[in-house]
Specification:
This protein has 5 helices and 39 strands. By secondary structure, the protein is an alpha/beta fold. It is flat, with a radius of gyration of 28 Å.
Length: 350
């Protein structure tokens, strides 16, 4: 189990130390659950009520909150960011051991850096290249001519099809499928004719891809995921989509083919986007929104209806069904009103 002192953590974060430098810290925990030897943090005002009863060895706090806390603290400008940085010091994720497991199946012309860790049951196909310090978990499949850059980490049972290019320090969780064939068909008198998907997938540096997320290969050009993109679990990225640098996308989003999403966007859970549209940089789309046209101005966008009691929702739904009829009746009333209301006489107004 990792062990650090409060002084070491203060130096690591460049935080103001309020407490004994030699205080041992062996774990992280929430304000409600923390106890001896554990470090907690306060980043959301709604949890401030738990600060008085917190039993943590120390807490990450802003200077304002530290003024009202009698315990040990590390004072920082952004406690949540400090927690994110310090969490890696306590990460218990197993580290791969350099070498190729005897049960792995590796093509003769695959190129694997000696420092990479190739787990049991892994399949690495012809002309694939695995960079320095890469960890590939059990039963992953790395397709022909695919490339994984230095420092990558693949959980067990990740599948990369052929011609997938992955940058450095990319994390891919279990069940993810990268480079599957996109949903492309032409209709011939009611029958569907498959279109060969001959593009690939290009993924930048420092990308994270969640469990069971799928990224389809391009039909002609590549599907592209930019540097620093973060994709949650169970996301569908269709063929030829482009996602700009440092965009984050929450679970269960579905992005249709050839959509282009800009840089530094935040796409909340359950969002759907139609194909062949563009979303500019710095856009925030709230949960369950259906994006049906391009977004050209930065800002927040929403659609759908907010939650309400079921009885009220049923009434609202009934009124929504009546909107078309109500609009027609309103137009008729406006025409009738215009017919009985004489135009103003400009001369009399003068």
């Amino acid at each position: 189990m990792p062990m650090h002192t409060l002084g070491d953590l203060a130096a690591y974060l460049q935080a103001e130390l309020r407490g004994p430098a030699d205080l041992p810290i062996h774990d992280l925990a929430t304000l409600q659950d923390a106890g001896d030897g554990q470090l907690s943090f306060l980043a959301n005002a709604q949890y401030r009520k738990h600060l008085g009863s917190c039993r943590a060895a120390a807490v990450l706090l802003t200077a304002a909150d530290a003024e009202h806390f009698a315990g040990h603290a590390l004072v920082v400008a952004n406690p949540y960011l400090a927690f994110a940085r310090i969490s890696h010091l306590f990460d218990r994720k197993p580290q791969g051991v350099a070498g190729i497991h005897p049960s792995a199946v590796v093509a003769d012309d695959a190129c694997i850096d000696p420092s990479a860790s190739i787990g049991p049951g892994v399949v690495i196909e012809s002309a694939a290249r695995i960079g320095a310090g890469v960890t590939i978990g059990a039963h992953c499949v790395i397709g022909a001519r695919s490339v994984i850059g230095a420092g990558g980490w693949l959980a067990p049972r990740v599948t990369l099809y052929h011609d997938v290019q992955i940058g450095q320090r990319v994390v891919i969780q279990s069940g993810a499928v990268i480079g599957g064939e996109g949903f492309g068909f032409a209709n011939e008198q009611g029958r569907w004719v498959k279109i060969a998907q001959i593009g690939g997938v290009r993924i930048g540096d420092d990308v994270e891809i969640g469990a069971n997320t799928t990224i389809d290969r391009g039909a002609l050009s590549d599907t592209v995921i930019g540097d620093g993109v973060k994709l949650d679990n169970q996301i569908m990225i269709a063929h030829n989509v482009q996602v700009g640098d440092h965009t984050a996308m929450a679970g269960c989003c579905g992005i249709s083919g050839s959509t282009r999403i800009g840089k530094h966007c935040m796409i909340a859970g359950g969002v759907g986007m139609v194909g062949h549209i563009e979303v500019c940089d710095h856009v925030f789309v709230t949960g369950m929104t259906m994006v049906t046209r391009s977004i050209t101005e930065p800002g927040a966008y929403s659609s759908g209806t907010a939650m309400q009691p079921a009885g009220e929702w049923k009434k609202s739904a009934a009124r929504i069904r009546q909107l078309d009829d109500m609009a027609r009746r309103l137009q008729q009333l406006e025409k009738q009103l215009a017919a009985v209301t004489p135009d103003a006489d400009p001369a009399s107004e003068a």
